[in-house]
Design brief:
- The strands form 5 sheets. The chain has a 5-stranded parallel beta sheet with strand order 2-1-3-4-5, with helices on both faces. A 5-stranded antiparallel beta sheet has the order 7-6-10-9-8, with helices on both faces.
- It is elongated, with a radius of gyration of 43 Å.
- 42% of the residues lie in helices and 22% in strands.
- The chain is an alpha/beta fold and 627 residues long.
- The longest helix is centred in the middle third of the chain and has 45 residues.
- Its EC number is 2.7.13.3.
Length: 627
């Protein structure tokens, strides 16, 4: 039951008079408009109030045996906040004054009463009660809203003093709500900030409503916090200010923008890597074929070796591009991360040798138990080497690089964009110069580098980022100027036993059973190299520059026993060519070569050889296909 009411919706009135006839007359007057409860004994009325009776109005006689009306109403105040009215048959001024002071009566009527006047008095008392409770409800709601809003909310007068504010706003100023009421916010600010506040509030009062985005210090780990501050003039010089923390939303927006940019750049990088891999395939293949035809001239062999080494460095660059663009088909398998790091000892020693007089110490803090991650071991080695070289370059005067491993359980949202689960965390930390927040915000941008011109490509960290993302992991970087940098790779933990490393490539041997091979590639130089490799192995080759020409060869030449086709060709891709060739020759072995792998588009059960490839790689795939 609501205060002063009853289930029927009418207000309740409690009548107290020691004369039953008076109660009957009052009931006859009021029962059409009120739910009437009456008693001839004040003590019983007090008991009813104590038991939960909630009248809107109490109408009491003054002269009653045992307990006068003013005393009864005073005691009733401990149980009820009803509007109180007094009935008296005598002009007892002292009793009325006492009822006003102690019983807080809202009015009194003399006996005998005038019915219309008494009904009007009781009705007005009921309406005051309802209005008072409505106001109290509104105040309670406002207080609850003020205190529970996460936003910073305040009301100020024309002089800028707080009229109302909530705890969130008070906390930003280092005080409590009570201590700040009547104070000016400007008194708690530095002069420059106080001046900016004054301008902002004057603008809001002049324009009616103003909203602005404000950058404030005090974010996580020294970063900025962003507040969306809205100011609305309510009239009469009153200004309401609402401040909402939008830091998380801005960070999410920044991550989405970065993801879009990375995707666009990745698409571009994949296309560049594809074209570059075609060039490298032609260059490396031609150099390898030429090396067998120059005889014993040591000078020419040295030149060919130098050219080959330069081309292989270009091949490493395309691997970085492909890892960044996520177009590189990773050979994911269970890898013993500790064994991989220990096996890099000599490589790191040679690669991290600093200028004369500087010392770079590599420390390893590896997990005592074997940690197995699902990752491409070659790409992980390349990633760790990149991170260690970056660390060395950040320590021009020498320092320490610490490589650590640990298996960790990651909770949801603990690491950005990483699902909850079990991961192997590989950390590379240095004691170098560290990075400013501005540099840290750009470290994953391709081609962004703080190194001197010619000293870095700007692809190291993007490659690492691409590797962990494509492997189903995540990455975090912590860095501050003068405090070094810590890069943590989160790689999916493996359940099985780590696979053994890949052995040395086999020597190239002539084909045991030479066959006729169809070579399909729109790039004439790559096609010539592939055909040259196959011819050196003893195979006979026939060439086609696109898929349509290749289908014509298959229709007219039943002696073709194998097809080697490029994946990315105009008019018809290698995957489409493979499907149509299989429909014509179901048993024809097919090998696709590609500068990048769009696995979703490849036909089923067709092996892929990545450019740039060596003759030994091609020979191994061909031998497997021919059985």
């Amino acid at each position: 039951m609501t205060a002063g009411g009853n289930p029927g919706g009418r207000a309740t009135i409690l009548l107290v008079d020691d004369e039953a006839e008076i109660l009957t007359a009052l009931t006859d007057l009021l029962e059409d408009d009120f739910e009437v409860v009456s008693t001839t004994r004040p003590e019983e009325a007090l008991a009813m109030l104590a038991d939960g009776l909630c009248p809107a109005v109490i109408l009491s006689d003054q002269r009653m045996p045992g307990l006068t009306g003013d005393a009864f109403l005073e005691r009733a105040r401990t149980h009820s906040d009803a509007e109180a009215l007094l009935l008296t048959g005598y002009a007892e001024l002292d009793a009325v004054v006492g009822a006003v002071n102690r019983g807080r009566i809202a009015g009194y009527a003399a006996k005998p009463w005038e019915p219309a006047a008494l009904l009007s008095m009781v009705t007005a008392a009921r309406d005051r009660y309802a209005l008072r409770h409505a106001l109290e409800t509104e105040r309670a709601l406002m207080r609850g809203l003020l205190e529970n809003l996460p936003e910073q909310l305040s009301f100020k007068d024309t002089a800028g003093r707080f009229i109302r504010l909530n705890g969130a706003k008070a906390a930003t100023l280092g005080g409590t709500v009570e201590s700040l009421l009547g104070r000016r916010e400007a008194d708690f600010l530095a002069p420059g900030d106080a001046a900016r506040l004054a301008r902002a509030e004057a603008g809001a009062l002049a324009e009616g409503a103003v909203s602005e985005l404000v950058e404030e210090p005090g974010g996580v780990e020294g970063s900025s916090r962003w507040m969306q501050v809205s100011r609305v003039a309510l009239g009469g010089g009153v200004l309401v200010t609402i401040g909402r923390d939008v830091t998380e939303a801005r960070q999410m927006e920044a991550r989405l923008r970065q993801a879009d940019k990375m995707q666009a750049l990745g698409t571009m990088a994949g296309g560049v890597a594809h074209d570059f891999n075609n060039l490298l395939t032609a260059i490396l293949g031609s150099l390898q074929l030429a090396g067998r035809r120059v005889g014993d001239n040591p000078g020419l062999h040295r030149l060919l070796r130098n050219a080959t080494m330069a081309a292989e460095r270009g091949s490493a660059l395309t691997r970085r591009l492909l890892a960044f663009s996520r177009r590189n088909e990773l050979a994911l398998r269970a890898v013993s991360v500790n064994a991989l790091i220990l096996g890099m000892g000599d490589l790191l020693t040679r690669s991290l040798a600093g200028p004369s007089g500087t010392t770079v110490e590599v420390r390893r803090r590896l997990a005592p138990e074997p940690v197995t991650a699902v990752v491409d071991p070659e790409q992980l080695e390349l990633a760790l080497l990149n991170l260690c070289i970056n660390a060395r370059d950040a320590m021009p005067g020498g320092g320490t690089i610490t490589i650590a491993t640990e298996e960790v359980a990651v909770a949801a949202e603990q690491v950005p964009d990483l699902p909850a689960g079990s991961y192997v965390r590989v950390t590379v930390a240095d004691t170098g110069t560290g990075m400013t927040p501005e540099v840290l915000a750009r470290v994953f941008e391709p081609f962004f580098t703080t190194k001197e011109v010619g000293k870095g490509t700007g692809l190291g960290l993007p490659m690492v980022y691409g590797l962990v993302q494509q492997s189903g992991g995540g990455l975090t970087i912590d860095s501050r100027p003068g405090e070094g940098t810590r890069v943590a790779l989160y790689l999916p933990a493996g359940d099985g036993v780590a696979a053994q490393g890949v052995g040395e490539p086999r020597e190239v041997a002539p084909a045991r059973e030479p066959v006729r091979v169809l070579v399909v590639d729109d790039d004439a130089t790559v096609r010539e190299v592939t055909a040259g490799f196959l011819a050196d192995l003893g195979h006979e080759t026939v060439e086609a520059d696109d898929g349509i020409a290749a289908l014509r060869v298959l229709e007219s030449d039943p002696s073709v026993r194998l097809m080697v086709a490029d994946f990315a060709m105009p008019r018809m891709t290698g995957a489409e060519l493979s499907e149509r060739a299989r429909s014509m020759r179901p048993d024809l072995p097919i090998l696709l070569v590609t500068g990048y792998a769009e696995l979703a588009a490849l036909a089923a059960n067709i092996p892929v050889l990545h450019k740039p490839y060596r003759q030994a790689d091609l020979a191994e795939h061909v031998a497997l296909l021919l059985g």
